Amino acid sequence: MSTWPQPVARLLEILDGLGDHTGELDDVSAWPTKSLRLLDEAGVLGWVIPRIYGGEEFSGSALIEGYLNLARACLPTTFVLTQRNAACQRFALSENEPLKQELLPALTDSDRFATVGISHLTTSRQHLAKPVVAVEIVDGGFRLDGVVPWVTGAAFADWVLLGGTCDDGRQVLVALPMDSEGVSVLAAESLLALDASQTVPIQLEHVFVDQSRLVAGPVEAVMNSGGRGGTGSLGTSALAMGSGAASLDGLVRETQRRPELEKILQPLIAEQDAIVADLLAASGEQVSSTDPVFSNESLRQRSNSFVLRASQAYLAATKGAGFTSTHPASRAVREAMFFLVWSCPQVVVDAQLREFAGVADC
Ligand SMILES: Cc1cc2nc3c(=O)[nH]c(=O)nc-3n(C[C@H](O)[C@H](O)[C@H](O)COP(=O)(O)OP(=O)(O)OC[C@H]3O[C@@H](n4cnc5c(N)ncnc54)[C@H](O)[C@@H]3O)c2cc1C
Q: Ligand 1 center to residue 132 CA distance, Å?
């Protein structure tokens, strides 16, 4: 029996609607306004917000089940949701109570949007000698300068959970109001996929951020707090598996007319079931995160490998028709590539490169 989790009733009502819009989102000028409204209707936007601030306080396997189902219906919208949720989760972890009271209740619906600009503290620009966002501690707050390389939905955001580094190496996270003086949203580069995430750099020129906007720090390695969240978290694997499931849905449709594809489909379904079962076990905390099978890195590595192969199997089965740019198979292949670069710890990148190189021990 399949281990794929059944969506809860409120989610089930919106999945078809999300799926109907997903093709329109493969466009540089798109932003998932309608889809975010659907998430709002189903109560999804409050999922990670603690109950005392008006949310549902989902965590663990409930959140992973939700992400699996949402990403299967529409990866771009679900990706945007994860960036919003990453900001909300960090706000919720903060010890700054007045800030939490201001931001978290406001983020339970689709009227306000928050996102993150933090990857330059973890996976981006790590080879550069100088941090890309410099923080100076000044009277009453912080002064920020630099370019934040990746901010999903920056132009639509009210606040960005933003990281920066002080001269002494300590780091801070702040809730940057996007209408602050000195903040510029730079032009978007066209992407291989997920253009509707409207991911762009933002420039900071002597931006003053009041002390009251401090989320965490100053401390060394500010991103290291926060449990199993963060870079290469189980949530990122859930999105990869949801995207892979959408490819298998397409392959199932092909197989209905061409039974010879059954022998390709069945092993992929078995692999999907095994990874999803382990992902749910890891997120339910029935197993230890130090057990290598259930570590974030091992699950992300297996999920990456799966989504890449599932999407290519779908494309190969749909032949030249699938290669046309508007066919869901060609979109699935491009979207699968995202997992090679998004929130991908170096150990996962290395394993992926070894798999590509065909060397053992991958
Ligand atoms: C669509 C999309 C949306 C994203 N959204 C967000 C978001 O909302 N918030 C967020 O915080 N992050 C976001 N990210 C960032 C993401 O999580 C990764 O951090 C990012 O993809 C890492 O890529 P990079 O080019 O910045 O890496 P870098 O490591 O900076 O690599 C850039 C270039 O530097 C060179 N280079 C790399 N390593 C070395 C080295 N060791 N020595 C010499 N040269 C080197 C290579 O030429 C490489 O192409 C997003 C990314 C994508 C693609």
A: 12
